[in-house]
Amino acid sequence: MSKSVDQIFVNAKQWLLSWLMPAPAWVLQIASSLINIFTLLAVFLTLFALMSVLERKILGRIQNRYGPNRVGPFGLLQPVADGIKMLIKEDIVPARADKLVHFLAPILIAAAAILALGVVPYGRNMTPFTIDGGILFFFAVGSTTELAVFMAGWGSNNKFSMLGAMRAIAQMISYELPLIITVLPVVMVVGSLTPDRIVAAQTGYTLGLVPRWFVFTPWGATAFILFFVSGLVESNRTPFDVPEGESEIVAGHMTEYSGFKYATFFMAEYIGMFAITGLAATLFLGGWHSPLSVLEFIPSYVWFFTKLSALLMVYVWLRGTLPRTRIDQIMNFAWKFILPMSFTCVIAAAVWHYAGRGLRGWLWSFVVIAIVYTALSMLLDTQRKFAPRIYRFAE
Amino acid sequence: MSSAAFVLIAILTLAAALAAATLQKLMHATLSFAVALVGVAAFFFLLGAEFVGLVLVFVYIGAVAVLIVFTILLTRRDVGKDRGANWSGALLAVAVFGGLGWAVFKTQSVAIAAPHIRALTVKRIGEALMTSYVWPLQCVGLLLTAALIGALVLVMEEKR
Asked: Which residues of B touch A150 (CB under 8 A)?
């Protein structure tokens, strides 16, 4: 019973393909890919709509106000209203803008974000596209975002846009390095770049209780936190939203965009967020595995999306509680703390592996991380005492 | 199927490369250069060398194209202006094309391709890098570290 519920989407796809049965192999291949693409788009665009309204609701709760509650029950139809508003808005292209580049930038940025979704395993046998180097594909596609952001900034022919694009590229390049290096320990331990193999390596439970997810090892926990923070920067979300910086450079590279192009940028940001949290869940939180062996009857995709939404809620929570950091703080944090810590994760994972992957390895890798962490925090401590701030008001 | 894909990708790559060489605005040329690189990566995918294709996208689009863009923006004041014809560049291009064409026509092994080529998996590349090519790999690593430290030294504030 639970088996068939678990595989319901896989079977549905097989059933759909069986309609085409006496067709040549390449037709089936294309049809299968199209089904995957449509499902992926349908699921994640719905999730985008849901996320946009939920985020505003939760931010409303955090800031002690209602949030959207007028359209539909509990304001749930708000995304529909937003979408209609965005569609019927006038599409303004600045007279001095580079028309073609200005037009292509939102398309490229959205395409890159959507492509990255394709390699994440959403459930048992539910990876849309199995590529040998799936993790590499994810980052290769993600790295084209920088060029798209640049196109948006340069094509707009606006100083705010250019500044925003420069900031975005600077911080994205700086954090791409730790993002990839924190994936390395997982790839090293599993010995594969394929997301399915990484999920398969996290099967089982230690002592029948604690799942063998990488987040429960010292190097895994550290790498997970670093990966999460770097992902936060990559998706330009609030503690690190200097590129947009509404209060200083209007909206960064999106200043000159209006109507549905602006919405496309937002969609790309959210879909990029889903992709990076999905990858975080795959790499460190056991992908679609259930946290307790008793709960294995619940379908795998339910577990994956539970983890995904839990991580997304942390994104919203951080957005509601943290102020914006300065660009120099972001850069210092990347190069002085996150990068050395992510290299430490690689070393700690090697220590864990060679000390037998058991309790001994756990303790040794913990020691490695603790030593580096204390050393770094002592080195980076500037001994600056913070005096009580004196506020001056215009009198 | 794959020959149709080959023709399509070839047309796209050549068109993008031609655009990169002839477009009037430097920034447009850079962007079409990036498109040409995507085409080359697609060729590697077509040949089953996924790893090389992915690394090509990763390094050339994610890093080199962005580097070129930054270089143009930081060194030139006339980014938006038209550029004239560069005859020495054309000469160099003809020379490179001639050399490559000569090499291609001299090579005969294409027609008698090996019957069994094992798929080039990431694992095999990793094994090769860690066994027979470990020396070059380490040398490249050292070189890159030196470059990184050199870049840091260049931008470091001078303390008096």
From this structure: 66, 69
Per DSSP, helices labelled H in A285-326 are 300-321
**CA of A191: which chain B residue's CA is closest?**
B123
What digits encode the pLDDT tens for the residues A118-151? 888 888 878 888 887 788 888 888 888 888 888 8
Question: Distance between CA atoms of B16 and B21, rounded to whole angstroms?
Answer: 9
Residues of A in contact with B55 (CB under 8 A): 136, 140
* pTM metric for this prediction: 0.84
Give per-residue burial for A134-167: e unless 16+ CB within 10 Å, then b. Answer: bbbbbbbbbbbbbbbbbbbbbbbbbebbbbbbbb
Domain parsing of chain B, residue ranges: 1-107, 118-160
The alpha-carbon gap from A53 to the nearest alpha carbon of chain B, in Å, equals: 33
Q: A142: closest CA among A268, A248, A15, A283?
A: A268
Residue A114 lies in a domain: yes
- Nearest residue of A to residue B72 by CA position? A154
Domain span at residue A255 reads: 47-377
Q: Give which of A304, A262, A302 is closest to A282, Cα–Cα.
A: A304
User: In this predicted structure, what is the pLDDT of residue B98?
Assistant: 93
* Residue A355 DSSP one-character state: T
pLDDT along chain B (160 residues), means of 10: 81 89 80 89 82 85 84 70 69 91 78 60 79 90 92 76
As for how many domains chain A has, the answer is 1
What CA–CA distance (Å, rounded) separates B27 from A154? 9
Identify whether A323 is part of a domain. Answer: yes
CATH 1.20.120.1200 fits B1-107, yes or no: yes
